[in-house]
Amino acid sequence: MEIDATEDLDKMQRSMEDATGAGQDDDGSGIQALMSELTNSIPGIDEAMSFSELMKQVQNMDYDVVVFDTAPTGHTLRLLSFPTILEKAFGKIMDLKDRFGGLIGQASALFGGGSPDQVQDALIGRLEETREIINKVNTAFQDPALTTFVCVCIPEFLSIYETERLVQELSKFGIDSHNIVVNQVLFPEKDAEELGEWFDSNKDGLQKEAREICSKMMARKRMQDKYIGQCFDLYGDDFHVVLMPLLDHEVRGVDKLKDFSELLINPIDLEE
Q: If you write DSSP's letter for every residue of 153-172 in order, what string do you get?
C-alpha cells in the first residue's frame, strides 16, 4: 500500500471544517484557508500524517509480519524521530492552548467558521488523536519482540558510512537492529586475490576488450572486498551480515522474488 500525505492532510482539514461548520463557506476562503495554514504550519506534519495513517491501516490488517520499505537513511531517520519531535511539539501546543486557543477561535468566527470552542476542540482533538497513535507506534518500534530494523547497503564507502550512521541513530531511538544485508556483491564466494590470480594467469590469452572488461571488474571487486572487510570488522561480532550476489537480471515477478529470497535465507557460506 502507498500513503498520500497530501490526501491525509486534506482529510484532516475537511474533518475539522465539518466539526466547526466551516464547510458552509461559500467563497472557498475564510476558515478553509485558516485550517490549511494551521495544519501545514506544523513542522513535518505531512510525514507525520502519513506515519499515523499507515499505522491505523496496519492495526486493521490481519498479517503475521508487516514490512516497511523505508526511504534512504536521511529520510528514514527523520521519520523515526517524529514520535519524539511531535510529542514535544504537541506538549508545547497543549501548554499554550489556554493562552492562544481563544485567538484561533475568534479568528475563525470572523471567517464564519462556527463558535471559537468548536474550532479549538476540533484542532486539539485531532492533535491528541495523532499523538496517541504515534505514541503507540513508538512503543511498538522500541519493543524488540515486535520490531527489528534490517539495514541494506552496498559495498561502497558512502553506503557503509550511512549504514553506520543509521545503526547509531537506531540505538539512540531504542530500536532493535541486528541484521545487515550487503547487496550487489561481485562473486561473494570468491575474494579479489583468488580472482586476481586467475586473471594474471589467463589475461594473455584474452582479447583486448575482454582484458579491459576483466580489469575493470577486478578493480571493482578489490574495492568491494575492502568495504566488505570493514563491514565485518564493524558488525561481524554483533550482527548477522549477509552478502547478496549481483545478479545478471532484475528481480521482478513472484518467481524471481522467491529465488532471491532463497539467497537471503540460505546465504553463501563464506567459510567454504
A: E-SSHHHHHHHHHHHHHHHH
Q: How far apart are CA 183 and CA 112, in angstroms?
A: 58
Say if residue 115's pLDDT is above 70.
no
Whole-angstrom distance, CA of residue 91 vs CA of residue 251: 46
d(CA 38, CA 52): 18
C-alpha cell at 78: 527523520
pTM score, two decimals? 0.72
Specify the long-range contacts of residues 195-204, CB closer than 8 Å, at least 24 apart. 195/221, 196/222
CB 114 within 8 A of CB 20: yes
Cα Dmax for the chain: 88
pLDDT in tens, 215-252: 999 999 999 999 999 999 999 889 999 999 999 899 99
C-alpha grid cell, residue 161: 558510512
| Three-state DSSP state, 35 | helix
- Partnered with residue 243 across adjacent β-strands are 182
Measured distance CA(78)–CA(89) in Å, rounded: 15
List of residues 6+ apart from 52 with CB closer than 8 A: 130, 133, 134, 137
Q: Determine the Cα–Cα distance for residues 178 and 167; give it in Å rounded to an integer.
A: 9
Starting at the edge strand found earlier in the chain, the sheet holding 150-153 runs 150-153, 179-185, 240-245
9 Cβ contact list (under 8 Å, min separation 6): 39, 40, 45, 46, 49
Residue 130 CA to residue 121 CA, distance in Å, equals 14
Coil, strand, or helix at residue 177? Answer: coil
The mean pLDDT value of the chain amounts to 77
Report how far residue 207's alpha carbon sits from residue 215's, in angstroms, rounded to the nearest whole number: 12
Residue type, position 35, single letter = M
SS3 150: strand
